[in-house]
């Protein structure tokens, strides 16, 4: 098959290969190309010697030739991260001694605190509250302006630090709503009436007659915590029942379930797991997600709507702020 | 060897040339000894040996002079441009042409380009390419012959070689001579000077990327940034290798342009051409011999001796020819000596001999479909660029809408969307922009950090980007009244700075429940 021969028109040798009658001239590679090629080979040897290059299997896993320069990308990353940490240390140190309100108004530190808070949120909180803090049923949306336990910087900070219904923490936020049906406080019918009343004060479709009956039951059983007008009480962790935000749903079925058997959501106390600075940054971050309540002095001018009847309402104040 | 017809000859001419090269073959061999050989012509080019060195002879004449002028001007621009100052104000580089990587800006006299405006550079490159197409279709490879850096630097390197080692014949003899101290001295001097040119070439390059006066000091002090030294090293090596050693090999083998431009030639393109209808039959000529019955070419091969790429223009248009026109100078010299009219080799269109034979040769035709097309394209691109540059905004606004969550329902039943605003202040002064929203009924703007409402102030330092997180909310009444169509509406961000007459409106989607 392979016979080298001289190509008549050009006088050059062929490679001896033939495809469908087509023969190829044995034209050499240009010298500059060859030299570049050799140079690359030579250079690859240098790389081999200097840098990590060759995997080696051993009895307990893989290792590799380390290269005489001793370069390692992992070490480099560690070194760079350490350097970046050291660079940040000063700001972090400064933040440690500042109050939450002071961090919030510090133009230089606030962006750093927000970034750090965002990172800590992603690592620790996103599992329940969602990566965008949008929440799920039973896990509050932190973007909105309804706060069960208060939306001021301090209130948020305290919630993160001590958790909610977290038994191991003596300062944890704690309350229990009675299970009105299973505890035998209300009959099934009465529960239905209260539910209709709650739908009425939250401006939803309702059965007017039942709601009227429910009003009396509400005053007796619920008003103490949720407020006479249903605006809630953050000190007690009693949600506002008149707003558009429902942790477990505002439809008749969900409300009936809540009133009948109560709910018992739990959040860990983070002071056992996170350092105080991280908790501060988290508080600042969550507060800046959009629903945070004004800080007393600095933001006094922004709170335009006066506090409502029970004085503890979160939504009443911030509504003006939006 | 020279009997096969060169296969790059343009169609119209091929037939005549084939006949002619056969008739002169015998003469050529007889006279071969002391005459320059077209070693790089395709049919002579050795495939299995390293290419023989080409020793171009010094040419004298009009085109050589033009080439010197172009060389001085282009090298002058290259070396001096980074030193031109252009005051722009406090804290901003005053270098007229500067590619500032650390601040990601490109300065060109009064023009200042930010990374997101890189399309200006793209436009510039498109313009350059179209210009090259136009010039090539009219005048052939003038780029290659006069202004290509490879040509300019090779010219410079050959000239240095000539100063030290003498002209063509002396150089050939020196090449063949045994190694003596004198030869060693000459070679050392030559390579030394070449390296000097190479280093200063690389040196000049880095000035385009740093403040030149400052960098010059740093370079000598050894405190310049590493990339500067690396770039210098790479450019020194390439200049020395490509200008001193590779020379015509770059044009023949490495550069794609000689191959591409074949597509831009037509029979009306001006090319350096040998007027074979006047020159043939060629042959040696003694003083007093009659010119009757023979052509004007005396087969002295001076055109070959001066050729920097080592070809014979009399073989017709060839891919190797860089159109430097030095063979025109050489032959005009010869024609003057033997008393014949000049321009046996001249700039001529490919169809000229044919048209001359028909008696209607009347110069070149500039208006041809391809020149008109290239000109029109250039006008369009240039128009777009001028319009773009003259209306270049000094403020740019980019808005990103939060997608996680897409929207937030508020306690009062309203809907809130989050946005990240980036405002680019391209003026050399700090500005405090006023940001507000419009376009939706009852819409409210809120900054969660400063707690500003309605109108938010954002201070952006000179020449930088400022960003702010903003919330826009729509009251409950408008969530369900049809303001949101399929859960979506548009909201306008208005960014204003009255003192500089700036008002930018950026329209963004606003989402709510379906
Ligand atoms: S220089 Fe002119 S006369 Fe001499 S060989 Fe070339 S074309 Fe002929
Ligand atoms: S043939 Fe003439 S124009 Fe072409 S490269 Fe040689 S000297 Fe220059």
Automatic annotation (TrEMBL), chain A:
<dbReference type="InterPro" id="IPR008168">
    <property type="entry name" value="Cyt_C_IC"/>
</dbReference>
<comment type="subunit">
    <text>Component of the cbb3-type cytochrome c oxidase.</text>
</comment>
<dbReference type="GO" id="GO:0016491">
    <property type="term" value="F:oxidoreductase activity"/>
</dbReference>
<dbReference type="GO" id="GO:0005886">
    <property type="term" value="C:plasma membrane"/>
</dbReference>
<keyword id="KW-0813">Transport</keyword>
<keyword id="KW-0472">Membrane</keyword>
<keyword id="KW-0375">Hydrogen ion transport</keyword>
<feature type="binding site" description="axial binding residue">
    <location>
        <position position="267"/>
    </location>
    <ligand>
        <name>heme c 1</name>
    </ligand>
</feature>
<feature type="binding site" description="axial binding residue">
    <location>
        <position position="129"/>
    </location>
    <ligand>
        <name>heme c 1</name>
    </ligand>
</feature>
<comment type="function">
    <text>C-type cytochrome. Part of the cbb3-type cytochrome c oxidase complex.</text>
</comment>
<keyword id="KW-0997">Cell inner membrane</keyword>
<feature type="binding site" description="axial binding residue">
    <location>
        <position position="177"/>
    </location>
    <ligand>
        <name>heme c 2</name>
    </ligand>
</feature>
<feature type="binding site" description="covalent">
    <location>
        <position position="225"/>
    </location>
    <ligand>
        <name>heme c 2</name>
    </ligand>
</feature>
<dbReference type="GO" id="GO:0020037">
    <property type="term" value="F:heme binding"/>
</dbReference>
<keyword id="KW-0679">Respiratory chain</keyword>
<feature type="binding site" description="covalent">
    <location>
        <position position="222"/>
    </location>
    <ligand>
        <name>heme c 2</name>
    </ligand>
</feature>
<feature type="region of interest" description="Disordered">
    <location>
        <begin position="297"/>
        <end position="322"/>
    </location>
</feature>
<keyword id="KW-0812">Transmembrane</keyword>
<protein>
    <recommendedName>
        <fullName>Cbb3-type cytochrome c oxidase subunit</fullName>
    </recommendedName>
</protein>
<keyword id="KW-0677">Repeat</keyword>
<dbReference type="GO" id="GO:1902600">
    <property type="term" value="P:proton transmembrane transport"/>
</dbReference>
<dbReference type="Pfam" id="PF14715">
    <property type="entry name" value="FixP_N"/>
</dbReference>
TrEMBL record, chain B:
<dbReference type="InterPro" id="IPR051684">
    <property type="entry name" value="Electron_Trans/Redox"/>
</dbReference>
<feature type="transmembrane region" description="Helical">
    <location>
        <begin position="372"/>
        <end position="391"/>
    </location>
</feature>
<dbReference type="Pfam" id="PF13746">
    <property type="entry name" value="Fer4_18"/>
</dbReference>
<keyword id="KW-0249">Electron transport</keyword>
<dbReference type="InterPro" id="IPR013783">
    <property type="entry name" value="Ig-like_fold"/>
</dbReference>
<dbReference type="InterPro" id="IPR014116">
    <property type="entry name" value="Cyt_c_oxidase_cbb3_FixG"/>
</dbReference>
<feature type="transmembrane region" description="Helical">
    <location>
        <begin position="118"/>
        <end position="139"/>
    </location>
</feature>
<dbReference type="InterPro" id="IPR009051">
    <property type="entry name" value="Helical_ferredxn"/>
</dbReference>
<keyword id="KW-0472">Membrane</keyword>
<keyword id="KW-0813">Transport</keyword>
<keyword id="KW-0408">Iron</keyword>
<dbReference type="Pfam" id="PF11614">
    <property type="entry name" value="FixG_C"/>
</dbReference>
<dbReference type="InterPro" id="IPR032879">
    <property type="entry name" value="FixG_C"/>
</dbReference>
<dbReference type="GO" id="GO:0005886">
    <property type="term" value="C:plasma membrane"/>
</dbReference>
<keyword id="KW-0004">4Fe-4S</keyword>
<feature type="transmembrane region" description="Helical">
    <location>
        <begin position="228"/>
        <end position="246"/>
    </location>
</feature>
<keyword id="KW-0812">Transmembrane</keyword>
<dbReference type="InterPro" id="IPR017900">
    <property type="entry name" value="4Fe4S_Fe_S_CS"/>
</dbReference>
<dbReference type="Pfam" id="PF12801">
    <property type="entry name" value="Fer4_5"/>
</dbReference>
<dbReference type="GO" id="GO:0046872">
    <property type="term" value="F:metal ion binding"/>
</dbReference>
<keyword id="KW-0411">Iron-sulfur</keyword>
<keyword id="KW-0479">Metal-binding</keyword>
